[in-house]
Amino acid sequence: MRSVEAFRGDLQRETTEWRRYLHENPELDYLLHNTAKFVTEKLASFGINHIETGIAETGIVALIQGEGGDGPTIGLRADMDALPIIEASSKPWSSKIPGKMHACGHDGHTAMLLGAAKYLASTRKFKGSVALIFQPAEEVELPSGALRMVQEGIMDRFGISQVFGMHNQPGMEIGKFGICDGPIMGSQDDFDIVVKGRGGHAASPHRTIDPVVIAAQIIVGLQTLVSRKTDPRESLVISVTKLNAARAYNIIPDQVEIAGTVRTLASGLQDFAEREISAAAEGIARGFRADIEFTYRRSVPVTVNHTEGTNLAVKAARNLVGPASVDDKLKVSLGAEDFSYMLEARPGAFIFLGNGATASVHHPAYDFNDEALPYGIGYWVNLVETVLGTRSVGELEWGDVK
Asked: What is the value of pTM for the model shown?
């Protein structure tokens, strides 16, 4: 297995240039035409001959065949899209596109997988094949890029038997990894409530059925669903994130729009949330002689790591940085990740990579830490040589997973 030193020097400098170029030129959703062109040209320059583009509009899958003979194909996935945020990082490589920035580190994810692709294409010390999956639209609501790539058949089309993903983690030290078996990230459901009352002049509230007051009561009422109706040992978050009412000081509107998100680790709690949010909102509204419209969407399922894939990921990371730098009992996050769709289609695992003491993801001051690049590249290479290597797992340096 390779140590991180194998991925410093020229490869780190080159991937840093790629990462900063991508950061300066962010694109959103499925409209990743420049990003996809950049990735495709780099892959071709590495001598990779099997590159398929246009999957889920701007997604890419490229195959590298090993020189060790026949074997399975494993998938490695990087997301490529940015976010609609005005950047405030003050870095020399800040976004050149107003209102768009790589605030989640997908520029780093793409650069690390490109770095691993260059290394693996030059060494090919493995059996079988590696499928490099460059995915658009991780940040969008349904249909997300991962879902569309799965629906368009990439797992069968490229013969992928296992699939692996990675995400940077602000607050985790550079050179550290975190993972756990089973659920590692929550589901994401979204809801909309339209409160329909009777508007009028703000000086005469008695002549109205005020949807603003009703909406306020609904928002407060939803807080008790978690605190008083669910087992405190279970994970459920209900957050109201949008409120849209009148635009003038002296108008009570006819209706108010409420929207929010639900995060959990269990499908039963998704059922509970959908049922109880609707019932609470309708009951409160009827008490004020108002009506509601309710919409509930299940956007992203729980991200669940498979045991074998988790063990392989832990072995690969420990062979790169040592046992003490890999937390295999990482606390579950209720953030959502559409890689969950790929893990529903194939076994595998999702791991976190330390990004250091940076701003959090989705923050205007966030930036991917380039010091993390050799660790991400090294993890991908070690993972390939762990899963597809010519040596048996029992011969790996750090022994059994603990």
From this structure: 0.91
